[in-house]
Amino acid sequence: MRNHPFLDAAFLPAWSTLQAEHIVPDITLAVERAEAAIAAIAGSDLTQLTYASTFLALERATEELNVAWPRWDICKRWLMPRPCAKPTT
């Protein structure tokens, strides 16, 4: 996920790649993917539901957010001098 460093699921993040300008697009993408996955779960055929197609699918739907959000929290607290500052273009 080079274009989306906050979504990179590597155990050890490349902290130098986590920049303020990436957080909004990365979190937005993670939310969009989670919403699509949840919509797919909600639209499932009720007669075909399984643990994997419901509970496990819901767990997977939010994995990217579970990776990105704690990294953002660490960055804004410790690594970025001006968190939430509007990136310059």
Detailed description of the structure:
The chain is an all-alpha fold and 89 residues long. It has one domain (8-79). 56% of the residues lie in helices and 0% in strands. It has three helices and no strands. The chain has helices spanning 20-42, 52-61, 63-79. It is elongated.
The class by helix and strand makeup works out as mainly alpha
List how many beta strands DSSP finds.
0
Averaged pLDDT: 85
**In whole angstroms, how far apart are the ends?**
22 Å
Task: Evaluate the radius of gyration.
Answer: 16 Å
Which shape, going by the Cα principal axes? elongated
Helix content: 55-70%
Order of helices and strands: HHH
pLDDT under 50 segments (min length 5)?
none
- The number of helical runs is 3
Question: In percent, how much strand structure appears in the residues?
Answer: under 5%
* Count of individual domains: 1
Main beta sheet = none
Write the layout of secondary structure elements.
Blueprint: H1 20-42, H2 52-61, H3 63-79
Helix pairs in contact: 1-2, 1-3
How is this structure best summarized?
With about 90 residues, the chain is mostly helical.
List keywords for this structure.
89 residues; mainly alpha
